[in-house]
Amino acid sequence: MTNTLITGGAGFIGSHVIKLFVKDKSYNVFNLDSLTYAGSLNNIEGLEKEENYTFIKGDICDKKLVSSLFKKYNFNYVINIAAESHVDRSIETPTLFAETNVLGTLNLLENFRRHYIQKKDKKVFYQISTDEVYGSIENGLFHEKSPYRPNSPYSASKASSDHFVRAYYKTYGLPTIISNCSNNYGPNQFPEKLIPLCIISIINNREIPIYGDGNYTRDWLYVEDHAQSIKLILEKGKIGQTYNVGGNNEIDNIEIVHKIISIVDDKLSRPKGTSLRLIKHVKDRKGHDRRYAIDSSKIKKELKWKPTHTFQDGIKKTIDWYFDNEKWLKKITDKKDN
Ligand SMILES: NC(=O)c1ccc[n+]([C@@H]2O[C@H](COP(=O)([O-])OP(=O)(O)OC[C@H]3O[C@@H](n4cnc5c(N)ncnc54)[C@H](O)[C@@H]3O)[C@@H](O)[C@H]2O)c1
Q: Fewer Cβ close by (within 10 Å): the C or N end of the chain?
């Protein structure tokens, strides 16, 4: 069994990735997560029974802890998913984003470097990143060679950690891979992000805050499709490469809100369009990127990956999940579970 450290495995994307890897008994999975407001043991309930799974509550910035884990388990694979992930929070507390996203990644890289024996070890350090590092694009698509032009403290911190990963590949010859993915949606997403915030606001008849005119375009990918791509990239991706991962689903924020209103109103047997009155255009986010759009032809061509959910399917599944998981919502927002 290969010892695999996955960080941030109690968060939104991490919880789906952890479940996928634990299902495959050739991996011995270690989940290192500090359980911030966004992480919850409820996201990974039931996994503690699995023999090939260990949860470690801890911070990726903690030098003593991370060093002791590398010494003890000599990880073959490191998949770094832990991060501060919300752009609005990064505008309020940029230093926290630099600490976790940059210094935390560096701490993991340093330990990986210390335990790597060139030409002998089959190891990979895999960094999970975002398409937001490329900045905003008016026309066309971001591809793997697009320049990094981050505009928010969040994307700047992710860009910086990606640069360190690349530098460790170039400078020390460490086997690293990076993937940059578009916006994810699906179960377990903390309700500060657009889609869950919108679903929950409609259910509770609360205002749905929309930044500016709402004509901000993102590419959307169902989270399980992202998780599948991560496993595939780890297993089949080429060392030193970057892979863009996207859903081919470019949609404006305001259009998403309209779609969700239509589905949720229908589920609640409210007359069509009832919740449109909840939309409230609020002052725009500082430095708001207009459009992200990603070209994922490389992973499709080289690794034969393709998303299995259309936006229509994925959004219905997501809405159903939030309807069926009121307890989860209460626990994560009250933070009584950790
Ligand atoms: N959500 C998206 O749409 C999206 C898209 C592309 C890439 N990404 C990237 O994927 C990763 C996960 O995003 P997410 O949306 O699941 O985030 P999330 O905020 O839901 O989860 C982050 C997890 O990391 C943990 N964590 C935070 N700081 C930590 C620290 N210092 N030490 C240990 N654990 C810590 C949290 O407890 C939480 O469980 C991030 O790196 C993000 O940049 C996210």
A: N
